[in-house]
Amino acid sequence: MNENKELYEIAANAKENAYAPYSGFKVGAAVLTAEGIVYTGCNVENSSYPATICAERTAITKAISEGSRNIIKIAIASDGKEYTYPCGVCRQVISELMPDGEIIIGNGSDIKVYKASELLPHAFTLDR
Ligand code: THU
Fold this sequence. Notes:
Layout (H helix, E strand, L loop, with lengths): L2 H12 L12 E7 L4 E5 L12 H11 L5 E8 L9 H10 L4 E5 L4 E5 H4 L9
Parallel strand pairs: 3-4
Antiparallel strand pairs: 1-2, 1-3, 4-5
Helix pairs in contact: 2-3
Bound molecules: tetrahydrodeoxyuridine.
């Protein structure tokens, strides 16, 4: 199995920890750092809906909060039959924290790989 598919499978496992009683839509994510560390995440919903955090931001926040700054890949998995793309807020967070990274999405069997800049072109940044 190649590295991208492997990371996607790890994301699919992380999905099982999702707390999604409101939407019923479980999502898992797995980030890989340049040092070879993997951090996982899942969506964690809240009865106050905007307090929900997506799987991608859970995983990225775990990596950053543990001191990992070199995230090179993130894989995203759900039970949906279609490819699950990151939401707009997560695309902004991905652009901030892994701007040169790859995003691996899947539909349960096949995967696709995108650059962060492809999913959020002209991202807002204070670097300009
Ligand atoms: N969700 C994610 O975790 N990641 C995405 O990229 C899209 C949406 C979650 C948020 C919410 O718990 C559920 O999916 C339905 O929107």
